[in-house]
Amino acid sequence: MRQLPTWMRAAIGAAALLVVAGPAARAQMVYDGNILWNNYKNGVLCNIERVATQPAGFTSLQLYNNFAYNDSLDPQLAAPYSHTAPSWVPAETSPASGRNDVVVTPVINPRACDDVSCSTPPSWSALDPVCFRGAVPPASMGSDWTQGWTYYNDNGAGRTDIDYTKLVVIVQGNISADRTFYNTINYLLRGRVNVLDGVTLTIEPGTVIFGESGTVPFLCIEMGGKIMAVGTPTQPIILTSDQAPGSMAPGDIAGIVLNGRAIANCALCWNGQSCLTEGTTTYHCGDNDCDSSGDLRYFRSEYAGYILSPNNELNSFTFCSVGINTRVDHLEAFRGKDDLFEWFGGRVTCKYLVGVGGGDDCLDTQMGYRGNVQFFVAQQWGDNGADKGIEWDNNEFNYDALCRNNPVITNCTFICTDHVTGTCTWGAHLRRGTDAQIYNSIFMGWKSPGLYVQDNASAARGFYPQAPAFCTPSSVDPLVGVTDGLVVTALNPVYSQAMFFVSAARGGEAKLGVYDSQGRLVHSGLQNVSAGAQTLSWNPSEENAPGGTYFYRVESNGQTATGKIVLVR
Asked: Which of 419, 396, 338, 439 is nearest to 33 (CA)?
């Protein structure tokens, strides 16, 4: 077999910012230069380990030199480890501050299976360009959005935010016609309560909903159903335990589940198949990334996460194939026994989330979730089985399943408060073929390495081609860290036409070359491009190209970017 050129061998793990490369590895991890890692191990502040367990085929690890990856960068948060009155506001002198930065608007690269009909998403789903790292800004740069509507009382002792004298109405079974929950009444869920297809449940601000212990109570929005639960900063909607204050505990209730018709990769959803929702007998997924399951804002889910059986749990908040026209912001998951927030496929954008004291992971995604999460605080206490800040999988049964799991998260703060004896492990665990895009975030206090990349199939090909972060210091070239000013990414796999998305620092002539697995040139083309985002393409049918692996090389203004595509015939 012909020896591949050096650049082509490197393309198997071609990098933008952080590269994991080797003869058998296609994986790469891409971060921006503005993540702050501040990790503890055995109670002592120390440098984070780069990879906890190096998977087979990963022979080297290179680190982008502007990556904030050491223990000397204290984010200087006000009270990040407090269980009763936490504050994640950075000091004015914190490296999380970017007050002197110049705002740039990042461009999100297209992600496989994103529905082009949603190319103009609702305004609330867009990521906000802000000049700070972490979830909460310094006081001079904005307000602390976590205050006023959140709750941190471990067992509910002495709580005064619920009026227990109100009339209680029991709700059970199916909600088969439009219904409103009023804030003058307390509601008690008896077992699973389903909002059926075509039905809308409206919940007034300040409404309190209890789950009846012993009945596995939770609220389930079925495909085609909608929830319109819009609280306010002073009147959040509360879903909580029916146990007496002082006796409330994780797992008392089972939380809330939203099922939609967006794309997931747990089945051939785009061909009419559906997936069974974990912990239920309902289904989710379809071919409509634009789907809406309603509006969920200023909503707290407390003491949830009922475990039905091993690997069959209910979370505080579960989003199954939820579409981009669902509005989700200002949610708190408090003391859930399993994951605090979990997404199975879909494209919903979620903002302003708080997850505290969970029993498993804080932010769990799988089965092809391709949405955005911005402004997220996760505080694990290290008890109750608490594990990771992030756990991301593509598909546990098929690591290379199409419509790959590829979330974008930015401006998040992940904290473990027990650095010595607690059960917290990794800040971010990426495995089973997931992609990842993580920006402008803070990881503090994770006992094990803050980042653990597992499985050769795992990769992170996405990045912002315009700049390494939302804000770049004004004294620095805004393209520092973006592969010498030329970034190219390609959608995989290719069925009919290969699309190459190019971000160039300067305009000029761009040369595209496509090579087969033997190193033979099968296509070449020239195109004049201007600075910024551009698109190049290749039609394999013109060269009668068979299915298989191909490598591409883009050259412009003396810069080169390479990568790999897979053509399916």
From this structure: 439
Q: Which CATH architecture has domain 1-16+485-569?
A: Sandwich (2.60)
415, amino acid identity: I
The 3-class SS string of 515-538 reads ECCCCCEEEEEEEEECCEEEEEEE
**Long-range contacts of range 1-9, CB-CB < 8 Å, 24 or more positions apart?**
1/518, 2/518, 2/519, 3/519, 4/519, 4/551, 5/519, 7/553, 7/560, 7/562, 8/515, 8/519, 8/551, 8/553, 8/562
160 CB burial (10 A radius; 0-12, 13-18, 19+): exposed
- Structural domain spans, the chain: 1-16+485-569, 18-112+410-481, 168-369
DSSP β-bridge partners for residue 173: 193
Q: Taking Cα atoms as reference points, which of 476, 475, 437, 463 lies closest to residue 533?
A: 463
- 362 contacts 429 by C-beta, under 8 angstroms: no
- pLDDT, tens digit (0-9, with 9 covering 90-100), for 178-209: 999 999 999 999 999 999 999 999 999 999 99
Q: What is the DSSP letter of 31?
A: B
Q: Tell me, rounded to whole angstroms, the distance of Cα 149 from its chain centroid.
A: 23
Give the three-state DSSP class for 19: strand
Query: pTM of whole model > 0.85?
Result: no
* 353 DSSP assignment: E
**Which residues pair with residue 212 across a beta bridge?**
none
Residue 491: what pLDDT? 67
Non-local (6+) Cβ contacts of 326 within 8 A are 258, 260, 291, 292, 293, 294, 295, 296, 348
Q: For residues 493 and 548, what is the distance between their CA atoms, to the nearest angstrom?
A: 10
- Give yes or no for residue 465 having a pLDDT over 60: no
At 216, which helix (H) or strand (E)? none
Of the candidates 135, 110, 124, the one whose C-alpha atom is nearest the C-alpha of residue 349 is 124
The Cα–Cα gap between 548 and 520 comes to 13
